[in-house]
Amino acid sequence: MLDGRNIILGISGGIAAYKAAGWIRDLKREGAEVTVIMTRSATEFIAPLTCSALSGNRVHRDMFAREAAHEIPHINLAANADLIIIAPATANTIARLAHGMADDLLCAVVLAARCPVIVCPAMNDKMYRHPATRDNLATIGSRGTIVVDPGEGSLACRGNGPGRLPEFVEVREFVLAALSNQDLAGVKIMVTAGPTVEPLDQVRFLGNRATGRMGYAIAATARRRGADVTLISGPTSLAPPTGVNIVNVSTALEMRHAVMAGINEAEVVVKAAAVSDFRPAVSVDGKIKKAASGLDLQLTANPDILMELGRIKGKAEKPLLIGFAAEAGEKLGEGQRKLKEKNCDMMVVNNISDPDAGFAGESNRVVILYRNGGEERLPLLKKDEVADRIWDRIVRLRRRE
User: Which of 115, 120, 157, 344 does the annotation list as catalytic?
Assistant: First the structure.
């Protein structure tokens, strides 16, 4: 996701500086080229040699380093950066940024940069809550700096409260969003994801093997590209994507109710959920006991939510409607049938019997079918990448409206 991106990691002098080693490793693992700038105080907490070894690049500390004087470090570093992350950002560094100071290399680079800047405050909870710090954070935020709220919990000073530097995985979405094309800015999008479960009694239910990974990737990548996303999710073990409005449901009827409640606001609907086709005709209170003669399970059909959305869309061509079809066997013929029958603009088809692209995996291989008869096969990709490719196609469809 970060292949070839030039990222500056600015480390200022707080106890959380030790976490920077892990951040460098995580950024490198995703393909980023990492350059570290350290304040003088930061070198008291973590050795420059550590950061240099992990990043594979020289660590920059001194704005007036003699060996690099001809390079004008603060100008060249700023010019080559795709993103600047400051983590940890101490109260002192935040104050310098707020007041436009350029008396150390890190602040001078930020002043000279025209790329996005992410600031991750980390400090004692009382320092973080102080009105001066709050004002300084508001000031840099008003100028376009992305401020990531610190975590709460036990602090190095033996206090407890806000001020912990988050792990990189928690900041990753801010990084990806800062580097993403904002071609969905302000677009209202509804995504459904996960399975639905249909209770047989208070213990048992009918369900399916869907995990929600593909739908959550669809929602997360749309949010990164600036969309206003509502995610209607069946039961999953996944953490909600950052910045997404999530509506949790269990059954197909609950999902239908949530979808219909928000459909008038949606400009794009992506139906990635695996909705149960049937539910028990009767749901029993308590627990059904074993019977020697066995059990006859009577089922009734659930509503076809995608079909209903296609009828609502009608001739108005709003909202843009994208369906998913998880099929086995003759998958493309079934996908074409659903595309036409359910009045979709796109149908994303995948083969559930494919061993490296099933429900629980982190990758997927899909075929995109279009209303105009077009067909596009994507290679095996991580689900985040599949989601981004799908949004690329949706953006193109929207531009033709």
Answer: 157
